[in-house]
Amino acid sequence: MSGPTILHARTVNHRLAPTEVRERAHLDEHQAVALMQAVAAQPGGVAVIPVSTCNRTEIYLEVEEDTDPTTLLRAALEAAGAETEVFFSEHALALDDLDAVRHLFRVASALESMMLGEPQISGQLKNAYRLARRHQEPGPILLRAFQGAFRTGKRVRTETHISKGAVSVAFAAVELARKFFTNLCSHTALLVGAGETGALAARHFLQQDIGHLLVVNRSPERARDLADTLREEKRRGKLGEARDLPQVPADSPEKCGLVAPRPWEDLAEAVAEADVILSTTGATEPVILPEMVEQAVAGRKGRPLFLLDIAVPRDVHPDVAGIKGVYLFGLEDLNEIIKGNLDSRRQQVPHAERIIKQELAEFHQWMADVDMRPTVAEFRAYLEDLKDKQVGFVAKKESPEVAAAVDRSLQQFIKKVLGRSVSTLKQARTAEERQQALDTLHRIFGEEPRDDRF
Q: Is residue 54 annotated as part of the catalytic site, yes or no?
């Protein structure tokens, strides 16, 4: 890297492209590393950080100032074996400099997510950043931009409530269950159905330290596989992609989070053991019937039973709602919770945008200072050289004490001149005005002084 650099970004995301286009744009780890290598091999290429998730693929590219980022990126994508044209189609958006940084800050703050405030994007950005650091040395702008994005995202998550409350059906179901019980560790949850939604709900239950989690599925192999996966993820403290809630604490009680598969034939028995039931099978007919629930309630000694039916068609027979001691909630109830939480999140957007504006202003100031640092450094060197010549001239005619005093005096003079010069440069109203001032400063000290007496 021989001089100033610029930032360029390309994004193909859920706002711009349908699923099939986003799939074409996706870069796996192998392609991402190949893209980094291809950028480094291109003249003027500095570094690149690709970010690929299910809802977006974004490329943040830093190149030398006189390099055309579009031409370089196209060549690098082709060399990496990526679907090049999708990044230059109507489904892609190109962003430069501060616009690219603003977009990155918004992504890190989950303002650009399909589900406003979702927390997964923070980890996905960090994974992309770590991968990039392992295979290249990002330039100063990329480093500063991503570090600023992580700080901005953290501030938005901690200073606002934009990530609070359930905004997925699985999360809403578990959040509703938490309202029933003060301590989930002393209760049992039953998951009926081991599909994607059920698995996500199971992870949420485990994150909240449910005492026992029973898994029942028509396919016993699938129930066992899910139970094994959940036990292993809990052991490692990494419960899959369910990051809406805090991960299981390291000091979580041993008696909590016990997971066990049950055969489909034992569904009635499992219903009798459970305090809260989440059903997600989507069978064509109800699988949890009134007589099954009546038998379960008879042995509960007045303890209530909560059923959350999030299947389509419904898994729980509607007559179950009329059984004493039973509380049945369906998709309509959960969607009402989700709607309320989304409304609450939207109210946090102005606060989040104010934080982004503050962080962007700080980044802009850093960028402004970057372009003047080489010139200021040269100016300092020029003044220091004049000082040394003057002190050397004095030292030949005066005592060491006098020469030292002159040296100290000129050091203070240089400090004041530099301070005034930098302050003037920072007060420039436009980039053009700043560049004119830098050019003027460079012309003043850029040539050796004609008076060579010193």
A: yes
| pLDDT for residue 146 | 96
User: Which residue type occupies 66?
Assistant: D
- If one counts every other C-beta atom within 10 angstroms of the C-beta of residue 380, the result is 16
Q: Which amino acid is at 199?
A: A
Q: In what order do the strands lie in the sheet with 93-96?
A: 45-52, 56-64, 5-13, 93-96
Of 1, 16, 21, 54, the catalytic one is: 54
At 387-437, the pLDDT tens digits run 888 888 888 888 988 888 988 898 888 888 877 776 776 666 676 776 777
Strand-pair category, 45-52 with 5-13: unpaired
Q: What is the dihedral of CA 182, 263, 329, 160, to 10 degrees?
A: 50
CA 352 vs CA 6, 113, 453: distances in Å: 27, 14, 60
Domains of the chain: 5-162 (3.30.460.30), 169-340 (3.40.50.720), 369-445 (no CATH)
Q: Which residue has the tokens 């934080």?
A: 355
Residue among 205, 175, 179, 208 nearest 190 (CA) = 205
Dump pLDDT digits (tens) for 122-162.
Answer: 989 999 999 999 999 888 899 999 999 999 999 999 999 99
